[in-house]
Batch of 3 targets.
Target 1
Amino acid sequence: MIGNFPGHIVKLHNNHYHINIDPFKFDVPSPDDLVSNGMRSSSVASKGSLTVPSVSNEKKDVAVKIQARSKMSDGSSILVPKVKKDTVKESLSSLSEDKAQTSTSSLTNMSSSVKHGQSTSVNARRAKSIAQYNPESWMLLDHSEERLTQLNLAIVGHVDSGKSTLSGRLLHLLGRVSQKEMHKYEKDAKLQGKGSFAYAWALDESAEERERGITMTVAVAYFDTNKYHVVVLDSPGHKDFVPNMISGATQADAAILVIDASLGSFEAGMDTVGGQTREHAQLVRSFGVDQIIVAVNKMDVVQYSKKRFDFIKQQVGRFLRSIGFRDSFMSWVPLSAIENQNLVAPASDARLMAWYEGSYLLDAIDSLQPPKRDFSKPLLLPICDVVKSNSLGQVFACGKLEAGAIRSGSKVLAMPSGDIGTVRSLERDSKACPIARAGDNVAVSLQGIDANRVVAGGVLCHPDFPVVVAAHLELKVLVLDAITTPILIGFQMELHIHHAKEAARVVRISSLLDSKTGKVTKKAPRCLTARESAVLEVALNGAVCVEEFANSRALGRVFLRSSGRTIAVGIVTRIIDRQES
């Protein structure tokens, strides 16, 4: 536990996927670029339509770390925050949560019950269009509030590039990790013969992560700059844990791509066979991230060589431009996390000062453009985790508010169940708050609703503006180099959308598209291969909460995976078959 850390560190989605993933290239426009180039979705078919804050209300700030899902006496599993024992006993003595597999099953079963009309009709309430929505005054951003703008910042890059060490060092330098706790990490790391991992242990707290020396799930922490309240999403770099990276980093507003400057390591990260530098950059671009800071780490290993830095900048810059990043939204910072060079203050090493006069890392973060938030749209909160309290009769839905606002007493609709509950309380950054708005990471305490009807992968939304629940979608996709066999009709895969995943199969390949113009080049192709853009239809085994990309980017982005590989990324262009509830 981190001593005087006014916030918390969380582990999201502790399902450890042990898979082999080949890297892929992404040298065609991103889904966002395709849309901006005029590839707008067709109208809906005529058939119808982590951070996870702690749940403690203690006034005193306590560091929190979501532990692995541990077994309870009733066989269920739970996300247990590491807080004071008395707090847990008094407020959440009977917490329970389904395993990830159970959550997926619950979502599928719930979708099935919606399909068969076992819950209140919600699509009937969809008569109101979003254009008719009129937000109340309290929902809009109050500029008189003295509050920093929140920035969700994903830390990504190849395994062993120093992501966790960089994050831990920043937290320590900015006072989020006490000197006492840092001393403990250093002592424990040396005892295990891993002295250089001390700063990484500020985020990698599980025994398995420390033993293996790698991050396995997305760790979340906070720090403040002059301009932003930064939510750090420290992502795993190992290829086995790409699904975990997708689940957590999909909430990012911007990214830091960490590069290992040492000889051989940089080249390994950029390798087309096993390099995660390429894959992570491709994924964050497909999340909609267009601002990126390239942190060239471990410059001390190469004696702060300007020649090495320029070589890396040339190679990585060419690749980033090929996947849709613009030069005006790219920043380049040479640094050394282990030697504290160019992190929160200008470099002091003469070898770096001799040729570098640009921004240090914290300054580069402040130079990012503020993210745009949909304050005036109806409430939309994809649920990344659920924490249940049987003793208190409450359920906590945790996630990032993608649109709208929420406050205590608000009525919310839980999808896909279609049940309505009341917001009892809200927590943001481990503290109770009266109102949360788009961009905030919150824990929403609900009452008046069956806890089993609120599931990870679901969505909290405005009662009059329910999200769509569907199992038949039209997608516009970009096929990646990771694919090993052509995509044919009947092709089986797994579809990831926000925090939900569902087995799917291709039922139709409508057309091939020109990757630059978006125009149809061939109708009804027999198959799809690497680097091709196409429109296709997929049928899901169970319905998911979804929206067309034109209406909601957060609920309209998809990732297709097969045999442990991300084979395509894309957007939802049409919802073909809505599930009536």
Target 2
Amino acid sequence: MFKVVSRQTIRKDIIEMHEVQRDKMIKYFANFKNRVAVISDLWTAGHQRRGYMAVTAHYIDGAWNLKSFLLRFVYVPAPHTAAVLCEVLHEVLVEFHLERKISTITLDNCTTNDKAVEELQDKLDSSSLMVGGKLLHMRCCAHILNLIVRDGLAVLGDGIERVRDSVGFWSATPKRHEKFEKTCRLMNIEYSKRLSLDCKTRWNSTYIMLSIAVMYREVFDRLSLREKQFNCCPSTADWDFAIEMIDRLKLFYDITTLWSGKHYVTTNLFFPKVCGINLAIRKWTTPTYMQLEQLLEEIRGKHEVMQQMSEEMKKKFDKYWSDVHGLMAIATVLDPRYKLHMLQALYGSLYGPEAACTEVARVKLLLRELLVEYQDDSSAGTTHGATAEHVGKQGEDEVFDIFDQYMSSQPTASATFVHTELDLYLEEPTLPRTKDFDIINWWKFGGIKYPTLQLIAHDILPIPVTTVASESAFSTSGRILSPHRSRLAPKCVEAIMCMQAWCNADMLGDNNSSLSTTFQTCLDEEDEPMDEELSTYNNY
């Protein structure tokens, strides 16, 4: 007869499995030769009142596969000051042997994180960082977009209040919702998307609410004639204002969704999209006199509010524009569909021909600096490898050792080589723009002609432009640290979170397929009957 194991045994087995797999991951990164992009975010467990930091590594492995890997889900003691965050993050990097292999660290935009990165740079060896650490800090672009849109929406006031009130009225009770749905059927309008009331502090929910509401504009008008209590039906001007707002928010919504992807490269997508935002905001803030004359007096005031919203967006955009676009511009150059042509075209449109030449020259200079740095590192690695093997060589091999030592003492023409390699890449025709283009696969095979650029692409392309990968761990942790499991110890929480993430990321290997299946079954089933049993135990 099967004997049910105790909770202590289950806890012990989970932690032991995690420690075994963690040791394997530590060894893997200890032997990893390329750079790793790190993202981190902080989350407070509501039922525990404890802070946890998710640290995720993004890199391209030796087979040129894009990987996203949760390193730690570590408990962070209060208060969450810059010094505390810096210390925890530094310990994670040292534990996984990444302190000399970092490309960038992506964090949310706040002063605490800014100061934490500054303190972290003091702990790291600047010679091991890209361009001496100038490119270490990456701000979460999704967070910056959120700040831009939030500042813009702050000036709207009651511009969409009647639309919001209408959605709230017909979704307030099941009876009203059923009547709304019935009216849709009577009018032969497909009720494909359910009415959704927004959260005023989340602009993306406002966009979703408006985009759904305008689909049923005629239904709202019909119900306003039949339902006496429904006295907040939007006017024609309200709907026109909502449609214009949807068009503007859609740009930010689509780009945020695109940047949040984890299974494809996002660095090469950043620069064209952020320039598109800049151009759109400039267009919104400069309406022509004829456009204003054609506006009806009823909606002219709303149009002025919309223009004010665009101006607030532009202020916030200009504030953060210079903080993130330098490294991302290099990623655009590394896209064989764009190269320098995309920079010249967009900078020219934004700043004019003369300023565009200056900006492009600055990006090209930064790329040359990276090329020289990578070539020097590659040469140093080759020299060290030859020295290590010198002991076992005799006879003819020693002749080549002497020759190699002589050549290493001669002046190298690294600058000329770098110039030639970069120019060769830039002079080749750009590739056609296709949606199914795989930039990683191109650099894996097409980049063989440009060995130094290939190394740079290997390290820059996996850099994430948002912290979504770390934030996604919090949705799972919120279910694990439910009211019924609020007393899970931090060590056990980390073991469960990491094991699930490693299973999903395929990091456990084929030999652990049964282990992966077990964790997936236990963690993916929210309504598992065992949950009620586990909730009776308090001491984890």
Target 3
Amino acid sequence: MNCQEIIEVETLDTDEAWDLFGEIHGRQTTLNPQVREIAKSMVEMCDGLPLSIITLAGSMRGETVIQAWRDAMEELRKSVMGGNDDMDDKVFKIIKYSIDRLDPILSLCFLCCSLYPQDHKIPRSELIKNFILEELVDGRTSMKSQFEKGHSILDKLVSLRLLESTRVVDECDSVKMHDLVRTVALKITEGKTKVIGGHCVLKEIPNEELWSKDLETISLMHNDINEIPIGVSPNCPNLSTLLLQRNLRLRFIADSFFSQMRSLRTLNLSETDIEVLPDSLSNLERLKALILENCASLVYVPYLGKMKELTQLDLSHTSIKEVPRGMEKLVDLKFLSMKNAYNKLEIFPTGLLPNLEKLQCLHIPYEVVAPIEDIECLQQLEEFEGRVRNVRDFNRFVKSRENRVHSVSYCIEVGNEHLGDEEDDYADSVECMGYTSVVFFKTDFSDEEMIIILPNGIGFVKFYECDSLSNCFSDDFDTPSSLHTLEIKKCGKIECILKNDRHSVALEHVTLADLPDFTGVIHKQNIEASLLGPPRFSSLKSLWISDCNKMQKLGLPASEFPNLETLSIKKCSDIEEIIEDNEEGGGNILTISLPKLKWLELYKLPRLRSICNATMVCDSIHMISLSSCLLLKKVPFYFPRDDDVINDGLIYSPPTTLKGIELGEDEEEWWESLEWEHPSHKNLVQPLVTFESSSEVFY
């Protein structure tokens, strides 16, 4: 944790340095002349070192008062004076200067980020939970407000260039810390904080002489420690934070290990292979957070009743068979997660939750029924995940949340059985604070006197194997404006989503699958009348339909979904035409417009004869996937005219956005038989055609 490592740094000349400062600061061209000269002097002190310039510029963002600039320059001059002229030393001093300018709360939040291994991408949500736990954000506000404040803190640190935003596709929003910035941060906390190993470097628990009495925080995360043997008992009376997460092979912790850590406040053992926690854990009476997430082998947690100050208990993705003893005494608990207990937890006891009056977040495994009568008592609840038995209990939950100070986010399953992991992707997380979803699985809707409440604020609704729905979805449910995603799968009786009542919906994503009686999105007797008035699916972006074998037409004119981006129809044996429309274009040519459509997928539609009886103008089309639609004779896409080269015979151009046409293997003959509006059309798109097996194209 010193600055002796030699790093090759390419320096910038004066103009390049000033340009870099301006790029990061963002306002150097509008600075008044006096401030501008001070800024240039400060940049010169950086000796052309890019990281120094970046952190300096970030630290001065938003500063306009000339005296503040003068004071900052004087502080910077004092910071870089003395010592040697080594570039690393210069960078170190300027980074430390930028850190020293932070307000105390921002500085502590920044130092929290240094506890992770070098180059580690740290999920924002994880850091914000740490900020909340360390009381670096106001705990008197709602969880949503706390998360918003946490994001604001991270945004500020990114703006100051002390953190970098990172995101990889399919990963959560994260930040990382530059190696040298991290080194400076650890130097600042040297003596009280130790970060050892990382990236599986450490194979054994460090020797006890490294655990000093002054130590307050130690991070051993992301290593390869497999046991903490009998007799190991570090003397750390001031240790408050112990981070052991992601030691994937850590299977055993001796009872002696925690005996001299009576000040411990945070213990993170998540993603370890621990099976049995030592009984000495019970004596950590000052513990505020016990994090055991993804300890898949964990079957035993000792008595917790002495931990009166515990506010966060994460037992999600473990194999515990019963709720730990003593939990009813955890009166300060705000966060309790026991979701996904690998089918081991058999029952969640009634009478426990009323003792936990401060609970803000509660996750109960879907495998057990949540005690609705206890949940109704939780006045401060803001986030809930679990399963209730029936519609009546779901309505009780919804009504219990009315007129509360804070809104509630939830993922609820309704039914006597758990849907199963293969279908519960809707509940990966509700950490976005505000996302709400409900899944009805084998739910009984036959009680005509039961009013089903879909409250405003709900975002996702799914019906799975619910055979007592009405013929039309809108007959059973009023769709709130917040509802953006609807899935209906394996439900008998339902024939359509809407009738011709001009009822509009704000749905963005609709999935319909395995519906034996489904005939179309809008009731088939009202298609022509539906052309009147404004579109009812104006927000719809994606429509996925499969295995609806009574559907002969989509039942949704093109004018009803002007913002549709994805249309996928698969394995519907009776469908003959996809899109119907009576709108006429110029002359004798019928045209319809789907201006946002990017992807069209048609698969295993044996009776399909027409995509549309008009020419389709799709200015955004990116990919067309067709397979096993052998009666289809025409692909009616619009090809723009190129009047400038008409004399050369090239009177058309392919759709400019089209990147590919994917067809099923062995369908070359069918492709050759297709009819085109003009002979040149086929030749224009031929280079984009590929023939793939259905398993590669359709998913």
